[in-house]
């Protein structure tokens, strides 16, 4: 992930200002691994331009948000630290400072009117803007100062923006929409019959028996104490009154005694028998008491899965209440998996055997058919015309076309989704090739133009940034201790 971000850093910097309006993002992060060399908020300086902790924070929040989206909202601060997002954000903040200094040297600046226009564009009116500041706890001065920095970078990039030439546009278009006139034939593994012979199945099992293992089992000592005993109504009511905050419905309302009575009885008995359970636990650790020795799988009905993990790791289970009884346990031995008897796994073995044999047959048939291949012509297709590939799921049709367009062979076979265990074999023959499919290009002319513009301007930006790094003296008042 971090390699991807480093490769595409220029894209991140160019668009970083867009998230200015939402720089509450990931919250303020701790910079504990970094040592600051100044008492002020300045962390770096490019000529006359200072980069502040807030600039760094804004860059970090924007970067965090981007990566979090890529990970489906599962990014946390610990993972962000492992990915090196703090360092990456520092680089981005400094790059932004370099661009701001260059903009100043060119005589560019942001007026109060520019700030007002952008605020009006985003918030529509003054009331919305003031509400935003109030809700996020920001001062107008700080927000507008940050916005001014971002708009200066935007103005610079707009000033430097190049328009693509026709040759450049057509080069990108050809890369996107070159077309092949294809003959194809799709062979589906499901249509291949495999004879199931009992002796062959047993041979297959003998050869692969270590694939069919029993679950991990655990030999344990266990003692249970049922939550039983005579309890008076008076005792239960007293216990309920002392602990009624523990008995609430889904709305958070305290349940009446009658509605909570069954749970109160269980809890009260657990309270009364707790001392007995602790004694049983201490005896069990010394292999004493009324324990039983049993063998269980990791998933069993007696001990919940999370408690089994504790037992595996610690060797002991302190008393806990489950299914109206106290349970305490001690691990004696972990029994490693062993090959299961043929009869127990026969159906699974047959399924695996058929799958493997049909894959081998599919490869044999495809390679033999390729020697005198005559397929169905589907006309000219680009790498995006997966809907024209019949008898293949869309994702595999897309994979097939991508493979064809990077292949150096005019006639060949592609196994999908992989050659080791293919579900399909697709034979193809390229009759003719077009450097550019005009119809596809015309349909996507604007997209091609925008993409070409992005490519040439990002290359320009990257070259410019490298030159500016050599031109300006960059002073950092911070170093990484990590």
From TrEMBL:
Alphabetically ordered keywords of this record: Cell membrane, Chaperone, Membrane, Transmembrane, Transmembrane helix
Keyword rRNA-binding carried by entry: no
Topological type in the membrane: Single-pass type II membrane protein
Residue span(s) of domain PpiC: 231-347
Location within or outside the cell: Cell membrane
InterPro entries, A to Z: PPIase_PpiC (IPR000297), PpiD_chaperone (IPR052029), Trigger_fact/SurA_dom_sf (IPR027304)
Membrane-spanning segments: 12-31
Protein family according to the UniProt entry: Belongs to the PpiD chaperone family.
Protein name: PpiC domain-containing protein
